[in-house]
Amino acid sequence: MSKLVRFAADILYPVVLIFGLYIVAHGHITPGGGFQGGAVIATGVALVIVAYSYKEVIGWIGKGGLMAREVIGLMGFIGVALFAFLFGMPFFYNYLAGQGGLFGVPVAFGPNPGELNTGGTVPLMNFAVGIEVWGGLSLVILYLLSGLIEKKDQEEEGS
Amino acid sequence: MLWNLPFIAVVVITMIGLVTILLKKNLIKVMLGINILQSAANLFLISLGYREGGIAPIFTLAPSTHMVLPTPQALCLTSIVIGLATSALMLSFAVIIHKKYGTVDLDKIRRLQG
Amino acid sequence: MIPDFIWTNAPALLVAIPLLGAFLCPIIGKISPRARNVWVGGIMLVTAIVALILAYRVFTDGTVLYTFGAAVPGLSIPLDSGGIPIRIIFTVDAMSAFMDIICAIVGFSAILYSLASESRNSGLEMYYTLFLLMVAGVFGMVSTGDFFNFFVFLEILSMASAGIIAYRVDGGVAVEAAIKYFVLSSVGAIFVLFAIGIYYGQYDALNMAMIAYRMQGSSLDMIALVMLVAALAMKCGAVPMHFWTPDAYSMAPSSATAFLVVASQASLYGLFRVLFTFYNLTLNAVTVGWIIIILGILSMVVGVTMAIPQKDVKRLMAYHAVSQTGYMLLGIGVGLAVLGNQPLMESFGYMAMNGGVFHILNHALYKGLLFLTAGAIFYRIGTRNLNKMGGLGHNMKWTMVFFIIGALAIAGIPPLNGFASKLMIYESVFIFNPILAIIAMVVSILTLASFVKVFHSIFMGPKLPEYAEVKEAPLPMLLGMGILASLAVIFGLFPDIVVTTLVSPAVHALTDQAAYIASVLGGA
What we know:
- The structure holds three protein chains of three kinds.
- In chain A, 36% of the residues are buried.
- In chain A, helix 1 packs antiparallel against helix 2 (34-51), helix 2 (34-51) packs parallel to helix 5 (121-158) and helix 4 (63-82) runs antiparallel to helix 5.
- Chain A contains five helices and no strands.
- The radius of gyration of chain A is 20 Å and the shape is elongated.
- By secondary structure, chain A is mainly alpha-helical.
- The two termini of chain A are 23 Å apart.
- Chain B is an all-alpha fold.
- Chain B has one domain (2-52, 63-101): Helix Hairpins.
- The longest helix of chain B is centred in the last third of the chain and has 31 residues, at 71-101.
- The radius of gyration of chain B is 19 Å and the shape is elongated.
- Chain C is mainly α.
- Chain C folds into two domains: 1-277, no CATH class; 284-493.
- The longest helix of chain C has 40 residues, at 342-381.
- Classes of the chains: A mainly alpha, B mainly alpha, C mainly alpha.
- At the B-C interface, helix 2 and helix 3 of B face helix 5, helix 6 and helix 9 of C.
């Protein structure tokens, strides 16, 4: 792509990243959440691939890192749920809600100004899902594009 | 009658999806048919959850507490996520098929017989 | 003896442990193949043990409830919810526990077998990730008490299965089979979702017990029933929606095929759950029962007639799997047709259903065993074509013994397990309608004929020169087959014990709708 597009992608990529993380972080009090935020971040990856070539991007991002993100996200999700067993509670029990501390502020009933520090384990799970979807969707995009690249290479060799 | 409009739309979209899946010979188009069918299911779930005058169930600075139940929306979100995974898997199959067979025409993808 | 922690949390661990194993598998696969094998085998062993503990708990204490995220696992209805179960609840009754046992046994044998059989392939950490996801999917499907949750596990299962069918991408043929399977199961799953929407719109509930409690039998419910029966019958491979079965079963790696049999039986479980727990007597039991019977008879006849001319050994076995699914549908269909008529139920209805449900267990054992033996032969000689085989009995003696056990069991020869369940089906169906019983026996004879032919062309005859150096299958594969074969023999020798301890409680849990509702809603 032209230099203009690359420059715009350079500027937009951090913005998209931060916007995605914002959606992930506010998942428990606004519409949105881990999946939506992760999908937004993955569009950022797609944007960079469109602006630059596939081979350049694969050098920067790397499938290993994305795979690691996927595993970390999934393990985080299961881990947060499994952690409830330490408190002698059932799987997925929300052991942080209303306890004070991290995400532990009790929520007022009815309309409220939206305190970020609430929700217990829900925001943690949102983060885990966000990281997982970031890795997973980006990997999907990369793998699907790899088919395209091979095709192009063959055509170039043939001509 | 007007209230049934979303459900009529659901039936129409379902039919479009089914016809696409059954009659199209292109693998990508069949996949799009599945996506259309998925959208019909989502529309169905969402229209089930609609209540007149209800607002979205978000308590942050809510103007009133007359809200709809978020369950159908949660179902719909889950089904969207599943739909995304379905399309991704189908597309990757299509990529491999195109690589190995050189076509996505379902009439020509017939090496399994018997 | 059993830790309290596992005793209480068994239903959650059933899904959590395979998921944990699946997600960590890519990382552990990076360390070394040996560590990965130990990890996968260990995870599956622990899962199987938890499943057996849970089954023991269910068969001694009755239905086990597990409410995710509640303060107490057994608290299905929160105090401030007005009597409506709102959380995801795992309701493990005797039928679910029965399916859990099947999944645990076959899953463990298949994993043990795959440690040797797949060792020559690359990308194995992804293979085991998909396999463990399938295990989690089956356990979730058969244990859950929430209908939307059922849909989610159904999708997890069909995605993982599609991935594992397409695992051998080299020729592209496996991907073709996977596409066939996946298009069908996606469309089926969307219709399940429509049915969930219909139930939710009418009854404001997703919990299976709550839907069953409020079930009216209105015309919308009948539309939902048609969608569910069509979708789930397709996923379990009944005729006329069976055409994905031979492709998918023959193309998947053999260890995965053995588990795909269990996966399709999980859909069969879903079908029975819908018919008996949701609708029960609000159905026109005779009509729907006959529909199921006709589906079963068609599957039996079409499956076996398509199987006879096959040249590919796994394809042949896949058509036999379609045919055997017919027996289960026949047994359950006869039970459904006389549901509500207590004298007839007592005289043959329960027996037919016992036969059908027992056949699920037996089918998983011997069909899994047969697919594993076919995989062992493929592992050693590299072809599945029956015309190219011959004389393998000289070198692969154990495989031959296991194949004989599996083949005699599927044909219903005493004293193997297939005979026990088929006899129950013949006897009870004969009272209901003699013609159906005769058809079932004829199909059984055709099955025997087909397997005699297969046995002859694989193992008999002189040693072929090209297979002179063929060795016996490796030890883990023999162990995996041995577990299934010995269970097939034991269940065949002592069918009464199995029927009274496992099958009969499962059938009564299935037919007794009120008990299922009461276990979740607390006698409401």
